[in-house]
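ok here's Peptidoglycan-binding protein:
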Amino acid sequence: MALESARFRGDPVLERIARNDTSAFLRFGAKGEHVRKVQFALIDLGFGIPDGATGNFLQQTSAAVVAYKTSRGLTPNDPVAGVGTITTLDREWAMPFADRDEWLSWQTRLIPEFNFTRADELARRRSGRGFVLNPLSAWLPSAFRDGIFTALTALLDPAGSPLGQFTPAASWGASPLDTYHCHVVIDTANVGPAWQGFQGFSRAIDQRMAEMMRQADQAGQEGTPAWTAAYRALLLAPGNPGFTQRIANLLNDIARESQNTGVPVKLVWHTFEHAAWRPVEIGSNDPRRAWLNVVTPVAGPVTQWPFPVTDVAFAANVAQLLGLAVIVDKTGTVTVAAQTRTEAAALAGLDKKRIDDAT
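and the structure:
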């Protein structure tokens, strides 16, 4: 059988072991990168090797292999990493967290109750549960709610990215530190007077948000619990219309214009936002950081952003109509707000200062 986990897949020695080539089995005295991979897999599952992943199969590794085989009911439980040991380890790391850096990342991330990992997504899929919209975001029109749920499902896929199974992950999770926003856009070629009007309304929303933040400042320092509670109350305050209803009206008008004209409205997503929480090989302009899906007039799947991942390319190819921030808690409850993470966090009851401290 072929190995599936990113840790083991493609390693010539481990692949030979998986095919039951007994001459490749790992025993006392074995050396090499393949030994180091197995050592890391054991260590990360809690089977200690005090000297660490040295790449040398000595007494400590022998003891860890015996302990692992005993715990998993593998026989014989001798200090040999053969076909049963390697294929069982491979299944444990096949998904999610096949990438060791990803696994390590989630061990130290702050704000745990709002870290919806790919492991959580795997559990959600196995249980058959769907994402649930926070009742405080019930104002969100259905086309945009469905588009957000579609994107989260694709971007958090434990088996790969929207490009296919085993492709490098599009995101390591939805959290206040990663995969927490999208841009509502149309192609620049389609911008006309009506769409320019929507952009003007978005700027007015920004002004209203700035006013509410100044009001919240009277309750306490920005981002603290008192400030968050005050800002949340202002976001939810009734009006003619209130803030969230103004956002709903704008999105409904955008969807109606899209239906009438056939102009596609898209959500553009940026993942791996903070360098501390992304793969070491990914820079700010890496293609793995940008994705999109059409929400109206006809909903579409998530695809990769087809242009360079730069601010210049973004401005040249799409016009932003609104920003939406998305906060997902460990239960899969999704809170959505315009325009920034600050508003979504406030609705979700998350203090902005906790996010600032974490970043």
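+1. The first helix runs from residue 12 to 18.
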